[in-house]
Design a protein that fits this description.
The chain is α+β, with helices and mostly antiparallel strands. The chain has four domains: about 60 residues, no CATH class; about 60 residues; about 110 residues, no CATH class; about 30 residues. It contains three helices and 20 strands. The strands form four sheets. Strands 8-9-10-11-12-15-16-17-18 form a nine-stranded antiparallel β-sheet, with no helix packed on it. The longest helix is centred in the N-terminal third of the chain and has 24 residues. The protein is rod-shaped, with a radius of gyration of 46 Å.
Length: about 300
């Protein structure tokens, strides 16, 4: 606040009449100056004050650039910027709390809603909690989302859907679960820190449909429609020409041809009820040949 420029009262001369006139003039000048200063208070002439009462301050033009207020009550407050790092905003019952880059809503006992931005990493977190304060829905700025309840939707678009929690999937302790991605539908089995595909259903670029059962016996590796299996897995393959089924990596195969209706069975042995059909057919062929030879010798 500027200094008061009105001079101190003049020395008394001893002449009462003269001294009273001078004191009256000095008092009028002092009052006029104080009235002017108090009527024109602003940030330029008031730096600090323990208490300011200004009934005559025009609130339409008053300006306060910097202020620290311990307690403020206002029916209406307009502000260009309120620094939430310096000012905490909360409702009367404490259910709404805004501080810094964090907004929280509680029910009086537990936080039920939280939205926060980490000012150091700029990571954003969104959280919903149940009545016990346990998180049920979370979403972060990396796109990671966790829902502990049911999700209902008419359409879901995703490159990968995994039927177990993320921690179990990463640690390969998910047990038996389904996985759906661009290579098809898989039923996986995690055991002893090893993940095996026990069932796979997929469609190739040429329209061929594949179903593979079991991961195999661990010997050798075979890639079936972009998925790695080992020998011993059972494969069913269907295309426009027909169907084929058999054990991956081994000779026995069954072919069903659509055009001519033929059934082909390949393998070194074909057994029906334990009977080696190929061996029996070969023995029958040998006997027929032998009979033919004997008949020819008799005719001679």
């Amino acid at each position: 606040m500027p200094n008061v420029t009105t001079a101190i009262p003049p020395r008394l001369s001893g002449d009462t009449a003269t001294d009273l006139v001078r004191l009256r003039e000095w008092g009028v000048a002092l009052v006029d100056e104080l009235n002017y200063l108090l009527s024109h208070l602003d940030v330029g002439n008031v730096m600090e004050a323990a208490s300011v009462k200004a009934e005559n301050i025009d609130t339409n033009t008053a300006r306060i650039e910097n202020a620290q207020i311990g307690d403020l009550s206002a029916d209406k407050l307009k502000a260009g910027t309120i620094n939430s790092n310096l000012v905490k905003v909360q409702s009367g019952n404490g259910c709404l709390h805004l501080e810094g880059s964090r907004i929280a809503i509680s029910d009086g006992e537990h936080v039920r809603f939280l939205a926060a931005l980490d000012p150091k990493t700029y990571d954003f977190d969104f959280l919903l909690c149940n009545k016990d304060g346990i998180p049920t829905t979370s979403l972060d700025s990396d796109g990671n989302a966790v829902f502990s309840g049911q999700v209902e939707s008419s359409t879901v678009y995703a490159s990968t859907i995994i039927g177990t929690d993320s921690e179990s999937y990463i640690n390969e302790t998910g047990g038996v679960f389904a996985e759906l991605n661009t290579t098809g539908l898989k039923i996986m089995h995690d055991t002893a820190k090893r993940r095996l595909q026990k069932l796979g259903m997929s469609v190739g670029d040429d329209g061929t449909a594949y179903m593979v059962l079991g991961a195999g016996n661990g010997e050798d590796t075979r890639v079936i429609n972009g998925v790695v299996y080992t020998n011993g897995a059972f494969k069913i393959e269907k295309n426009d020409a027909g169907a084929m089924l058999g054990l991956v990596g081994y000779e026995p195969q069954i072919f069903l041809w659509e055009d001519n209706g033929e059934l082909w069975i390949s393998g070194s042995r074909v057994r029906i009820n334990g009977v080696d059909v190929l061996a029996e057919l070969q023995a029958l062929s040998n006997r027929i040949d032998q009979i033919s030879i004997q008949g020819g010798e008799t005719n001679e």
